[in-house]
Each structure stands twice: as structure tokens, then as C-alpha cells.
Amino acid sequence: MTIAQNLSRRGFLAGTAATSGGLTFGFHIPFAVAQTANQPEINAWVVVKPDDTVVIRIARIDMGQGSLTGLAQLVAEELDADWSKVTTEYPTPGQNVARKRIWGDFQTAGSRGIRGSEDYVRKGGAAARLMLMQAAADEWKVPVAEVKTSKGVITHAASNRSTTYGKMALAAAKIEAPKDIKLKDPKDWTIAGKPLKRLDTAPKLNGAQVYSIDFTMPGMLNAAIKETPVPGGKVKSIDAAKAEKMPGVKKVLTVDGNAVVVIADTWYRAKTALEAVEIVWDEGANANASSASIAAMLKEGLDAKEAFVGNKSGDVAAAIAGAAKKIEAVYAYPHQSHMTMEPMNATAQWTADKCMVWTGTQNAEAALATAVPASGLTIDKCDVIRLNPGGAFGRRSSSHDFVRQAVLVAKEMPGTPIKLIWSREQDTTHGTYHPTTQCKLTGALDDKGNVVGLHMRISGQSILAGLRPEALVEGRDPGTFQGLNAQGPEGQFGYDIPNVLVDHAMRNSPFRPGFWRGVNNNQNAIYLECFMDEMAHAAGQDPLEFRRKMMAKFPKHLAVLNTVAEKSGWGTPTAPGVYRGISQHMGYGSYVAAVAEVSVSDKGEVKIHRIVAATDCGHVVNPQQVAAQIEGSFAYGLSALLYGEMTAKNGRMEQENFDTYEVMKMAEMPPVESYPVPSGGFWGGVGEPTIFVAAPAVLNAIFAATGKRVRSIPLKNTDLRKA
After folding, report:
1. Domain-embedded: residue 645
2. Which of 398, 421, 444 is the last residue of a domain?
3. What pTM does this model have?
4. I need a surface site. Which of 13, 498, 688, 707 has the fewest CB within 10 A?
5. How confident is the model at residue 29 (pLDDT cuts 50, 70, 90)?
6. pLDDT at site 15
7. Positive/negative CA dihedral, 420, 422, 426, 427
8. Segments forming the whole domain that contains residue 523
């Protein structure tokens, strides 16, 4: 099949929404069938084999969050399938393009794996069920209204006849898909909404699951890469004479002018030879960049006259000027690395008429969009096979630089599959980092301790400016204001304050920003929720009651806040030396809150004893997976709070591996009590939202324990010892 080409990478990425913003469908998702003799496809989502095995196609990737199982549950629910006979497969982005994007959006980011596709995948399952029913009714010559389905079996009670989906699949595939599809009421679910075992547990336990870094092919070679240590730098010269003579080495080359690659028969040999290459770098304009210079730049933005407005109501300046009491504080948030367990890697095979890539990715369409221009071929001659990623957290969505490099390397040896693996050092020092920002907050209280004004000035990086500047809105990055907006599914402010101004002075670091689990909500929740505690303390009020007074107009925010207050025993005595902190936030369509119980020793050692969390994500597809995601997000968020920081010196990142970028130990992880409180009527995310409230709840508890306000993280940099 030949597809007319008028495709730039930028245009393709924009079309497939390669950021965490996701895709808004402006078209009807068709249920067209491409039937083959050995692939009894009823529609794009459902294949039923003669032995009654149901294959459900999943467009979103599973990175451990459970979307594979959750999406399969939704399709199987509407299909009335026998869950014991359900399996899954991933279509490729090339197939999606060839079939006019029949599967829609392939992106798994922004907690959209389920909420961004639940409607049309459920309709896919329901359409397949109706077509199977119609096929049986036609064969039996009875009204379809008299036909029933249950667990993969079709019955007609009046004539005491039954058949299976496998026997009706080919006939059903020939029937026109229904246009009007009524979905089940969630209260009638028997598969969705239940804590079913995950479909990917067994292969993970028995070692059968193949991750991207495990992938092998006959005749495959391996490649190691070393990029310029300074962003924007170039390769000035190399001396590869020694490396080229080393065992197993096939080739030494430069890629994109800023990296050196060695191809060898094993990756260890490639990496060893790469260390022997003498490289002279042109470090470029950023050679003197440092954490200190970046912090100074951000500090300047706190009082700059020009700023993009994200949320504005009333007259903040007048409210602050006339306040009975004014409170001011400056907070800061550092660069942080994703530190996925599996470093970036991709396998590519290139010939003059075909380019294939095998990799773990959060967005296979974006990976394909990266591979196409690198290959120099047309899109119909390229495809990406999605493999399981060993962790992602936004890194495998933010950029597919490793895919581009793999294709360019493979072009050097046509027909030979080559696996490019980034070393841990390459991965840590050349990632896309959590954006660094500072925030100056000014609050105004009246004589009764009510908040009458709040100004939040954010100074710092824009992710879109670094990754997709064409997506900026008149120079403004809407994502910077996540969780601080007046309204919207990606994060509401949640407090009724008459005079509000939230603005952003864009100040971009030379180090690439990226979408990092929770994205801008992470720092914004700290800024807002810790400052709420500061204002409550200044007003002499309980932090919970202080918040409640401003939340009457935000019942979903208030409901999760009240849940954690009740479940944690807020206001009741704790164990000696243990103190509580509370926070709430909204993002990715969900409402979340947390209470942390913390103690701080005389030596300044912080111990988190318990986290109590509540999440309203509208609907719960698998309660067990929701609980696991909540616990996992706290592990990631608390690790970032305790240790997460990338620092720069002489234009390069200083942390290179887990010895210098510490993560939280299992012994430090507190028990997490998670309370899903789905109110229905909407679909929110789960994988990211609860990470927002981890840090502010702990920081507020630390203040309760010590009287010290921690306004910058990680905690490892703060001395909490008693005087």
C-alpha cells in the first residue's frame, strides 16, 4: 500500500499529540473490518478465533500501570466475553496509519491510557457483540432481540439453541457494524470494575516477558553511544584507531554531529571500545551553565514585569495592599531525572525499501514519526514494533532521540539489525528532566483570617518550549499552570478566593525539559498546598478547617479531603513524636488528597510512618490496579521529595548513576492506605494524580513536627536537626 507523502515529523507529532496533552478526536472512529482467512477479525478491537479465544487489540502500552488489563476488561465487558479466554495484542503504528488511524491515539501519557480511550474501546466491544448476535439470529432465522449473550456463548431460549463466539466469528465479520451503540451502565458491570488478575503477571513472574532491552534477532549487532556532555555541543574530532582494532568492533562513527557510536558484536565490547575512542568536544555556548546560574536566572523572573497569565480574578494588587496581614514565601523545585530501571534503547534494521524499529515507547506513533525522517523512506515503508518498556514515567513519551539514533546507526550497515543501548551514565546525563522552577507566593488575609488575595508568580522552564515550541499558545505554555487553573479537567484550583493571580515568567534552562510523572502538578501542588498551610498558621487556624472554608464550591475536592481527614483520624492524638500534614489537589481529571504521618528525630532524620490517600477518578475499572497505582505513585513522589535532584556544573549534569542519584529504599517506604471514592459521571486518571499530594503532605507534617518550613527539595539538602 502506498500512502501519499506530505509529512514532516513536527506535523505528524502535532497530529498524534505526542505530548502528555493527548489527542482530541474530531472524527468518528470507524469499525471497518479487514478480514483475512487466518485472522477472523470482527472489528479493529476484537478477533475471535475458532477455538473461542478472544484477542483484544490494545493501542495503549502497559508500563506496569495495568492499562493492558484494564482496557481488555472494558472491551470484554461490552463483548460479554469469557474472561478466561481473553488474550491481547498490540497493533503497530504502521498498521494504524494504513487503516486511517482506526485505533485512534497510541499515546500512553498524562494518565490517559484508559480515560482517553474508554468510550471508543467499549463501543468496539459492544459493536462486536451485536454483530455476533446478529449472525446467530440470521442463522437461526429468529429476531435478534430474542438472542442473548453471556461469557462467549449466544443463546436463543425459545428454541433452546446455543452457539459460541468462535463459531459465529466469520459470519459476524461480514455484518455491517451497528451505528447506534448503547453502552452498559457501570452498575451492571461483571468484568469491568472488578479486581481481576492482571493479564501480564504470569509472563513477568516466569521470565517470559520480553522487554525492549532483551530483544534479540539473528545476526544482530550492538551499539554503544556517547553524546556531547554539554547541551548544544558538538564532536570536534575523534581518534578511533585504538578502538577499531579491539575485539568484535565493526565500526566507529559519529551521529548527528554530537555523538560517537561504536558498533560491535556485543554491547559490552561496544561500550569498552567506545571508552577507547579519543574524543575532542566543542562544548559550545552552554559550557559555563551551572545550577547556580540557572537559579539566579529563575530568581530574576520572580519580580519580572512581563509574565504569562494562567489564572486571574479580581484585583490582587489591591487585595494585598489592603490586607490586615500579608504572607510571602519563595519555593523552589529542581531538575529531576526519570531514572527508569531500563535505560533508553532501540533496535533498528534498515534497507533501501524498509525500516523496522523494535522499542519500548509510550507513544508508538511518535516513535514512528521519529523513525521516518531518520530513515529517509516514506511512512508506508517504516514501522515500529512496540516492546515492553522497563519503566517510562514520561521519558519514553517526551523524546524518541534514541529511536532516531538507532535508525541512523542501522543505515550505516544496511540489512543488519543493530540494537543501540544507552549506558546508565548516558541515560542519566542526557535525559529530559523535570522542569526546574521557583515560585513567589503572596497571600492576603483579612482581620478574621480569611484569604482575600493570592498571587503566585512561577519562574522557570516551559516543557513545550523545550519539546514542541509550535504548541505554545501565543508564546504561553498552558501546561505550566496545571492544577492552578480556574477550571478544567487537567487541574482546577479548588479554592474560592476572590482575588487571584497566577502567572509565569518563562525562563528556560539549557537542559532539556520533559514530561515527568505528574508533570507540573508536582511543584504546583507543593507551592499551593504548603503555602495554604503557611497562611493557616499565620491565621492561627487548623490547616484542615482553613481549607474547608474555601472549598464549598468545590465538592469533589472537599470530598477527598474529608475522606483522608476521617480515615487518618485528623484532630485525634497520634503516637508520641508523630505529626500530621494534609494536602489536596486536582489533575488529569481526578481529585486527590493525602494525610502524611511523620516524625523527625533530634538528628534531623525524617521517618514517614503512614500515608492515607483518597482518589476520585470517576470510575474504577480495576480496584486492585487503582490501589497499586496509588501506592506506586507515592513511592515515586516520595523518592523525589527525599532525594531527587540533578545538579549542573561546567555545562554538564553531575549525577551519572544511582550512586549519585539516590532513590528511596524499600525500608523507607511507608504503609499506604488508599481509598478510591469514585463519584461516577466522569473518567479521571490514576497513574499520575496521587503523586501530587505526596510531597506537600509530608512537608506540612515536617513543619508540624519541627516548626521549620522546607521550601525547596530534595529533603536531603535540608538540616532538620534540633538546635
Report:
1. yes
2. 421
3. 0.93
4. 707
5. very low
6. 40
7. positive
8. 291-336+433-717
Is the CB of residue 147 less than 8 Å from the CB of residue 139? no
Per DSSP, which regions of 65-146 are E strands?
86-89
Please tell me whether residues 192 and 230 are part of one structural domain. no
- Whole-angstrom Cα Rg for the chain: 27
Nearest residue to 156 (alpha-carbon basis) of 166, 145, 167: 145
Domain identity same for 185 and 238:
no
Eight-state DSSP code of residue 229: S
Q: Which three cell numbers stand for residue 90?
A: 498490540
Claim to verify: residue 260 and residue 372 sit in the same structural domain: yes
User: Helix, strand, or coil here: 192?
Assistant: coil
Whole-number Å distance between alpha carbons of 61 and 360:
9
Q: Answer yes or no: do 130 and 250 share one domain.
A: no
Last residue of a domain, one of 159, 183, 206: 206
- Do 223 and 302 fall into the same domain? no
* pLDDT over 60 at 141, yes or no: yes
pLDDT, tens digit, 9 for 90 and up, residues 311-332: 999 999 999 999 999 999 999 9
- pLDDT, tens digit, 9 for 90 and up, residues 228-264: 999 999 999 999 999 999 999 999 999 999 999 999 9
- Region of 597 please: left (phi>0), alpha (psi -120 to 50) or beta: beta
Which stretch of DSSP H or E encloses residue 453?
Answer: strand 451-460
Select from 263, 643, 550 the least CA-distant residue to 418.
263
Asked, for residue 17, whether it belongs to a domain, the answer is no
The DSSP H or E segment spanning 557 is helix 555-568
User: What's the DSSP call for residue 434?
Assistant: B
Same domain, 240 and 312: no
The CATH number of whichever domain residue 199 belongs to comes to 3.30.365.10
- 68 lies in the same domain as 140: yes
**How would you write 626-693 as a 3-class SS string?**
HHHHHHHHHHHHHHHHHCCCECEECCEECCCCCCCCCCCCHHHCCCEEEEECCCCCCCCCCCCHHHCC
**Residue 13 belongs to a domain:** no
Hey, how many other C-beta atoms are within 10 angstroms of the C-beta on 242? 11
Report pLDDT for 536: 98
Q: How many helices (H) and strands (E) does the chain have?
A: 20, 27
- Are residues 244 and 364 both part of a single domain? yes
The answer to whether residue 302 sits within a structural domain is yes
Tell me the Ramachandran region of residue 104: left when phi exceeds 0, alpha when psi lies from -120 to 50, beta otherwise.
left
